[in-house]
Design a protein that fits this description.
About 50% of the residues lie in helices and about 15% in strands. It is α+β, with helices and mostly antiparallel strands. A hairpin with a 5-residue loop joins strand 6 (about 185) and strand 7 (about 190-195). The longest helix has about 35 residues, at about 130-165.
């Protein structure tokens, strides 16, 4: 993407001399190429009819000269100078109609044009030059109009994406749709941030991506480069590049494809400016990949393996552990895109790196961060999880729940592992209550996990209402908070000293509240069975009711 004032790489797809010779207006003249036959790919910018010997001084470059030969000079040296002038002026070629002056073109002219690699064409039949100029100029104007239409179409579609806050993945998909070929958006380390494979298998597209991308070095901001003839453009803001958009056409990229590439880079820049206070490019890419894994949105396991490898997290032959991190939600904290999840993703990723684990890390919703840890083997799981969880707590700066699923070996098991991690996070004690662990697994939630699974069962709901209903009614009528006292008491196994400290109450106040609970519920808290029943009821309420978090 160029600075303001720089011309884009995109130019009108001008016809070549070879294509011009195939037009009916020229074909009727029975054209014969006498010189420069290997250079018929020269582009024709315009057609000029000229019958003067010093015509070179009137040219700007790219003109196809039409002549009857009447104005050509007489001497051999003059003919050579005439040809040299056309070469120096950058003409596209010379077409001479035989019959008015020449029956055959002079050898010095033919030889000079051949040395200058400039196409020389003889017409053996009379033609109307106006028909030739009309046909070629119409071609050029139509190409200009098509580029303008493509530019307008791309502008409308990318503007609409930017207005609605589309992600880089959506913008890249739009580039691929408009360009009709695969597209890659990579960061400065050649890691794939987003891709759209079009009709190409994803694993073929991303195979050995970093090495291939490093071989495609561009001389300018936008260029066609590398052995695979990729079209690439920098994605930058305020003169600083922070990514690269790569187009992989099946052949030489067309001018419209290059236009779409540059418009897409502009849209990604706008997205970056709008999103820079939320997630980094890496987090956005990780979040998209994690969501696709969890929701099963992928064509094959090979596709996902190629995507994760391109992000620097190879999952093949790895022990995979799904982890959910849920920071404690403050009462005044916003929800949606600015909630704790997106803000916590970077610290969680930093904790994974510090623990020595490669991981995909991204916000899954407004509150939770998902991490897929790729470990060399299951034996190192406890140590990595412990270092990771402690790093999370240290970096977040607020209490959090860290929940891990069982170790997985393939994508189907990864989805199950995430489901387990969500379940563990739902059932784990809220941060700051009891003896909170660095992280929780399925064996840790035990009864709480069972109660969470059965939370929708009417029988369990009836048990909770029967056991705690009178206490909830009392709190509502009198503005008391006896439930919180009971929660602290049962969470500490009936230890009154620990319960008083956890509830920030004096022992005398705790005794008075426990006595009130006994009166309201009609039970004795000295009974172990009663305490167990009350603890189960409180855990059930916490796992299903609004007070759980």
């Amino acid at each position: 993407m160029g600075d303001e004032g720089d011309g884009p790489l995109v130019r009108v797809a001008l016809p070549t001399v070879a294509e011009a010779l195939e037009l009916p207006a020229l074909r009727v003249g029975r054209p014969e190429v006498l010189a420069g036959g290997e250079h018929l790919d020269r582009r024709v910018r315009w057609v000029h009819v000229g019958e003067i010997p010093d015509i070179a001084g009137l040219l700007l470059g790219g003109e196809l000269i039409l002549s009857t030969g009447i104005g050509l000079p007489d001497g051999d040296d003059e003919l050579r100078r005439y040809a040299a002038g056309l070469v120096e002026a950058g003409a596209a070629g010379l077409v001479v109609e035989l019959g008015r002056r020449f029956r055959r073109l002079p050898p010095p002219l033919v030889q000079a044009m051949e040395r200058g690699n400039l196409p020389l064409v003889a017409l053996h039949r009379e033609v109307r030059f106006v028909r030739i100029t009309e046909a070629i100029h119409t071609w050029i104007v139509e190409q200009q109009f098509e580029v303008l239409r493509a530019s307008e179409r791309a502008h409308e579609r990318f503007t609409a994406l930017c207005v609605r806050g589309a992600s880089p993945a959506e913008i890249v998909a739009e580039v691929a749709d408009l360009a009709g070929c695969p597209v890659i958006f990579e960061d400065l380390m050649h890691r794939v941030v987003a891709h759209a494979a079009a009709d190409m298998p994803v694993d073929d597209l991303l195979r050995n991506w970093e090495a291939r991308s490093r071989m495609a070095r561009a001389d300018g901001r936008t260029a066609v480069c590398g052995d695979e003839r990729w079209a690439v453009t920098d994605v930058e803001a305020r003169g600083e590049a922070w990514g690269r958009l790569v187009l992989l056409p099946s052949g030489e990229p067309s001018q419209i494809q290059l236009l779409v590439l540059e418009r897409g880079a502009t849209a990604l820049t706008l997205n970056r400016l709008l999103e820079r206070n939320r997630e980094s490019l890496e987090r956005q890419a990780h979040r998209s990949t994690l969501s696709d894994i969890i929701d099963g949105r992928y064509a094959s396991p090979q596709d996902i393996a190629a995507r994760t490898a391109a992000l620097g997290v190879p999952i093949d032959q790895s022990a995979l552990v799904a982890v959910i991190v849920e920071p404690e939600h403050g009462p005044d904290e916003p929800v949606g895109p600015l909630a704790a999840g997106p803000l916590a993703a970077e610290p969680v990723a930093a904790a994974a790196r510090a623990a020595g684990a490669r991981a995909l890390v991204g916000a899954l919703d407004g509150r939770r961060v998902g991490a897929l840890l790729a470990l060399p083997g299951p034996a190192g799981r406890p140590g990595v999880l412990d270092r990771f969880a402690r790093g999370v707590h240290e970096r977040l700066g607020r209490p959090a729940t860290v929940a891990a699923g069982t170790t997985a070996r393939d994508l189907a098991e990864v989805r199950r592992s995430f489901a387990e991690a969500h379940q563990v996070a739902d059932a784990a004690p809220p941060p700051g209550t009891g003896h909170h662990r660095p992280y929780y697994e399925l064996p840790d939630i035990q009864l709480r996990g069972l109660l969470y699974i059965l939370g929708d069962d009417p029988r369990l709901q009836a048990f909770v209402e029967r056991t705690l209903g009178p206490l909830l009614d009392h709190d509502n009528r009198h503005g008391t908070n006896l439930l919180e006292t009971l929660r602290a008491y049962v969470a500490h196994g009936g230890n009154k000293s620990e319960a008083a400290a956890a509830a920030h109450l004096s022992r005398q106040s705790l005794y008075q509240r426990l006595a009130a609970i006994e009166r309201v519920l009609g039970v004795s808290l000295e009974s172990a069975d009663v305490r167990t029943s009350l603890h189960a009821a409180v855990m059930s309420l916490d796992s299903t009711g609004p007070s759980a978090r």
